[in-house]
Write a structure and sequence with these properties.
Distance between the termini: 60 Å
Strand content: under 5%
InterPro entries: YndJ-like (IPR025450)
Number of strands: 0
Keywords: Membrane, Transmembrane, Transmembrane helix
Order of helices and strands: HHHHHHHHHHHHH
Largest sheet: none
Pfam family, one: YndJ
Helix content: over 70%
Radius of gyration: 19 Å
Protein name: YndJ family protein
Shape: globular
Number of helices: 13
Length: 300
């Protein structure tokens, strides 16, 4: 990975650490997460510093501070699951997506610590570890969270439930593909792309018109544009992801990592993640409460 690409990747990671994760955490109504969000700079600032330090103990230590912050977020996934007393409720597609979102930043945090230490975790090249960090901020955390938000916003649509299931599934398959091989990663990319295209379609067809109807309210002004941009960007960026994964698996010509960072990476970070999270912050549909338990009388 060239120096220019590495610097661009670092900038995307900075955006993820400093803006995307705290914006996303604000959309999840989970006890304790508000405190984590208030204290998030204690993790994000050292994490950002680690990107600009040379590899070694100091960079590893500052990266570990960020990893601890991501672990604090991930710890709320089992806590949230434990509070959901019904297995059927906890396995609802929207809830699966939110639980996945809570867990994914910790993968990025672990990869960051290993890369800053110069340690080839599980035998992965340091460039792969460096790219894993932004991937699990955007394709992991943000994509799963937005899929869950969309599913809860249009609960009657089967496509919304499929999106909320396929985005986490695709993300985990891509992660598994790191260990299994390029063809498995291609399957994950295909599943993730299908899920994100469904998210984009539902955002464009269902949520954007709803926001347009309320655009006269000051806090909704500009929200339809943000939703429209986030949906349109996904159509292109996920096609690039699929092309790259297919090329890696089959050997056909495909974009370089530098080109992918400048197109797929920047598009997903700015066009999808930032625009969609800003839009959801303005919508009355957020926050996302835990799924309530099924009334006891319905279990009899």
């Amino acid at each position: 990975m060239g120096r220019g690409t590495a610097e661009l990747v670092d900038l995307l990671v900075l955006l993820g650490m400093g803006a995307v994760v705290p914006l996303g955490l604000a959309l999840i109504d989970e006890p304790g997460l508000a405190r984590v969000r208030r204290l998030w700079p204690l993790a994000a600032v050292p994490g950002a510093l680690s990107l600009w330090l040379p590899r070694g103990p100091l960079a590893t230590g500052t990266a570990a501070c960020y990893a601890l912050g991501t672990i604090a977020v991930a710890a709320h996934a089992p806590l949230r699951l434990a509070r959901t007393r019904s297995l059927a409720r906890s396995l609802a597609p929207a809830e699966i997506a939110v639980l996945t979102a809570l867990a994914m930043p910790s993968v990025a945090g672990l990869a960051l610590v290993a890369e800053r230490a110069g340690y080839q975790l599980f035998g992965f090249d340091l460039d792969i570890l460096a790219l894993t960090v932004p991937h699990f901020h955007y394709a992991g955390f943000t994509a799963a969270l937005v899929a869950g938000l969309v599913c809860r916003a249009v609960p009657g649509r089967p496509a919304a439930r499929w999106a909320a299931l396929s985005v986490p599934t695709g993300t985990l398959l891509v992660l598994g593909g790191y260990f299994v091989g390029n063809w498995a990663e291609l399957v994950g990319a295909a599943v993730l792309t299908a899920g994100m295209w469904l998210v984009g379609l539902l955002t464009w067809r269902d949520l954007r018109p709803r926001a347009e109807e309320r655009s006269g309210v000051p806090r909704f002004t500009g929200t339809p544009v943000l939703l429209g941009v986030s949906a349109a960007v996904l159509a292109v960026t996920m096609l690039l992801a699929l092309w790259w994964a297919l090329g890696e698996a089959s050997g056909i010509p495909h974009p370089t990592l530098g080109w992918m960072a400048a197109t797929h990476g920047v598009g997903n970070a700015l066009g999808f993640a930032l625009c969609s999270l800003l839009a959801w912050r303005r919508l009355a549909l957020a926050p996302v409460p835990p799924m309530p338990p099924i009334p006891q009388e319905t279990l009899r």
